[in-house]
Amino acid sequence: MNLLEVKNLGISFGGLRAVDNVNLLIEKGQLYGLIGPNGAGKTTVFNLLTGVYRPTDGTIKLDGVDLVGKSPSEICKSGIARTFQNIRLFKKMTVLDNVKTALHNQQGYSLAESFLHLGSYFKREKSMDEKALEILKVFDLDGQAHYLAGNLPYGKQRKLEIARGLATNPKLLLLDEPAAGMNPNETAELMDTIQLVRKRYGITILLIEHDMKLVSGICEKILVLNFGMELAAGTPEDVLNNPEVITAYLGE
Ligand SMILES: Nc1ncnc2c1ncn2[C@@H]1O[C@H](COP(=O)(O)OP(=O)(O)OP(=O)(O)O)[C@@H](O)[C@H]1O
């Protein structure tokens, strides 16, 4: 069964057709890769899926619900979380609080609870601490829960961003170049963590990555974009052997 159904998606910025007639069907639980050269339209697809941009054409459905026209926060509540190419953490907050902000997104307090610090407030805070720590543990970040996020090494900040996305309890997690700037060891470790997260939480993941070998190692399906258009889609094997992909993407 498809979790995400994107049909004939398109957007123009003035005269530039950044995304043109893109189709994307992602099954529940799938780990899906979105690749393509610089400027191919990958991040724009994420911005369309998350309501940052409204598409000029096409439809986007998550679990059968139409997302076009919804705001980014409504889309987050509908079940899509994302990370960004450039890390966007609350650097002056602790690692734990970064994850808790995402949990707050699901279970807000009433005004009376937060101002008067009623008993229910402390109970919920405790349960949120526990939930946040559980998520941090998956990313091996529980030992640094009380560090300031900005003081974590780069690779761990990237992991914390994913942890925060996960804390919104998404159906679909969008990761924009999660391994950018990481060394090969950190990258390999991150890919293992992504696979573990998918398995443990049973979520669906769409991943942008430049490195085709890396994507093909963990994704079941791949969509290749070039100049905003679909160049190829299929299993990693299909895509890696597609002559058009080899020419356009690998430049061979
Ligand atoms: N808000 C915008 N206004 C005008 N042009 C835009 C806007 N956003 C994206 N573009 C253009 O759309 C095209 C696709 O950009 P996009 O960032 O989606 O590519 P990408 O595949 O994510 O590239 P990269 O791998 O370099 O991140 C580019 O030509 C970019 O300059």
From TrEMBL:
Domain ABC transporter: start-end pairs: 4-252
Biological process terms in GO annotation: D-alanine transmembrane transport; L-alanine transport; L-isoleucine import across plasma membrane; L-valine import across plasma membrane
Family annotation (SMART domains): AAA
InterPro entries per the UniProt record, alphabetical: AAA+_ATPase, ABC_AA/LPS_Transport, ABC_transporter-like_ATP-bd, BCA_ABC_TP_C, P-loop_NTPase
Listed GO CC annotations: plasma membrane
Database matches in Pfam families: ABC_tran (PF00005), BCA_ABC_TP_C (PF12399)
Keywords from the UniProt entry: ATP-binding, Nucleotide-binding, Transport
One function term, GO molecular function aspect: ATP hydrolysis activity
Protein name stated in the entry: Branched-chain amino acid transport system ATP-binding protein
